[in-house]
Design goal:
The structure is a homotetramer. With about 190 residues, chain A is mainly α. Chain A has two domains: about 45 residues, Arc Repressor Mutant, subunit A (Orthogonal Bundle); about 130 residues, Tetracycline Repressor, domain 2. Chain A is about 75% helix and about 0% strand. In chain A, about 40% of the residues are buried. Chains A and B meet through α1, α6, α7, α8 and α9 of A and α1, α6, α7, α8 and α9 of B. Chain B binds a DNA duplex (21 and 21 nucleotides) through α2.
Chain lengths: ~190, ~190, ~190, ~190
DNA sequence: TATGAATGAGTTTTCATTCAT
DNA sequence: GATGAATGAAAACTCATTCAT
């Protein structure tokens, strides 16, 4: 692992744990097992380091989503696959995910913007899938933007337990995750 | 308005805008129109001030939810009423809401805890309502915890546009909000 | 003496002794007998502090020159009076003078500019006096700009011994000073 | 050109531009087109490098002055020749000259000392020439030390325009230079 | 010999908090 | 109470210097 990666990993985990401000460059360096000023050999400032961390997380998230989109099956299946990919990403790259999850509480103005962009991209993606599904007759004629937002929110909340402390309840989390996705598709009303 | 309230208001808006770290005590005092050290007459530390701000937002949120629960009508209507109350709260007390929305990106460890508690309380409430609804036959037999989480998430995302910059698109936001709630109840599948 | 002045004095003497870079804010604060961060209550940065120091020296220099210009006597006397004022200033406000003397060796780009401006103002002043003297027939028809520069240089070098360490040789310095001025007026050639 | 010279040249120009502190070893290495630590193969420290640069400038300055002294002509001519040599040196080796010109604004305590020594040597030289001239009856009986200082100062100021930015006004500078020298010899008084 | 990489010591700057009035 | 002024502790950042190759 290159030293740059070492630093980014340390940074990612600390930013995830404590946020941008509370994490100090010294801690990051310590966790990376290097001297404080070495950080500055690789990143011109703490802010740049955070930005890179963010971008890294973002890229690897987008990567994780790849290939889920063009399977020749129902849109419902595609969305479920995306959900699965999302859930897996959260489990494997928890600290990256934690940083990406901080849509609110501005860590810094430009971070907000990047995260907002991510949000928009995801909503656009979902929205277009949902439109497809509607055209194909899979889904009823809902407002695809609203539905996309809902899907986004559902993915978000359902992963929160994992983002929190928890190694503990992985199975439960997964189950509830799929149950939640199901509710998104079928609603909760009793419609016999 | 008492001086204490003056401070808390200033604090709430600044914490909402910039987060706990980036907001300085001096700015807060300035915005409140008082001297910097006066803040310390009313709050022992910046952290306490934040805590109080948080608690204040929390209380007024709980207050806003009150009375929505015991109407003699369908559980669906109760949940919708809660959604409405939530949406109205977000619009009227945007900065309080912004602070409460920062579930992720820890501003401070104990803040996380408080917000986690709020989350739990809300889930419990929703969950119990959903159980009621299931018993009454209004809803199908979903996992009420999972459904509660989903409902929470739906309320969250749908309010984000309002929490962001936006005075702009209030009507659109409201429409999409109710559309989203509807999706929660009915799902998106075409089930003729 | 106000605290601001206390700081500026400490700063002036340290900047004079060691230059902008080698003088640390901590030393300045120590010499002023205050805490390091107090400096920042009065000046937004070390650079600003330096700038103010410079400006202060500049103003008090210009002040010291005032009133020397409009005496109803020969231009030679006016120039000599200016020389005297200059010499006295150097002796009374040695550290301010030392800073102003640093025309070369850039302490910082904008400092250079300020000092260059001072140089220009002085040359202009001398030049105009010299032109007067020429018109009146006191001086021969020299290039007034060149002569002004020479006068400036003469004032400068002749004061250097005082700017250096020396309490030691005050009388000698004064004597040589006036002797030097005389050379400026009469040259060194033997012209009987 | 040896690597040592490469480094010294780069150092000279950077020290001239920015002063001792603002010039970094890295920049110097970059400008010399070598690796940073190679500098340390040739010079034990930045300070030593500066010292060498200074000494180099000093030597080449002394070199430039050589041979001007023993011509069998008037002392006035010798001094003028020295002035010319000085002026030429300033134009050809501007950055070395800039460093040597920084008599004031201490870049470092020992640098001050070296420059002070240079100053003394030059004054001694001028002073002895002037004494000769007085004995020969070329000059009137001035204090030769004072006159030497004045000559030094005159050479200094008159070269400043060249040391500043200026490729622009070379002819004007040269003219004013000789005019200034003339003033040193003849004074400015009208002595018909 | 040459150098990229690493770093420790030191510097500026920030800001919550205290204290005298 | 209310507050301006003062500050210590901590944080980001710089850079000359060293070291392994």
């Amino acid at each position: 692992m290159t030293k740059r990666e070492l630093i980014m990993d340390a940074a990612a985990s600390l930013f995830a744990e404590k946020g941008f401000y509370a994490a100090t460059v010294e801690e990051i360096a310590d966790r990376a097992g290097i001297g404080k000023s070495t950080v500055y050999e690789y990143f011109p400032s703490k802010e740049h380091l955070f930005r890179e961390t963010l971008k890294g997380g973002l890229e690897s998230y987008m990567e994780a989503m790849k290939g889920r989109l063009k399977q020749p099956c129902s849109v419902r299946d595609v969305l479920t696959a995306i959900g699965t990919a999302h859930f897996n990403f959260i489990q494997k790259r928890t600290s990256a995910a934690r940083i990406l999850a901080g849509e609110n509480s501005s860590q810094s103005p430009w971070a907000d913007e990047l995260l907002l962009q991510l949000r928009e991209r995801r909503i656009t993606m979902f929205s277009s899938l949902l439109s497809q599904g509607i055209e194909r007759g899979e889904f009823r004629r809902v407002d695809s933007r609203a539905a996309a937002e809902v899907f986004l929110g559902v993915l978000g909340v359902l992963c929160m337990p994992v983002l929190r402390g928890g190694e503990d309840d992985k199975k439960g989390a997964a189950e509830r995750f799929y149950h939640g996705i199901d509710i998104f598709f079928s609603g909760i009303l009793d419609q016999e």
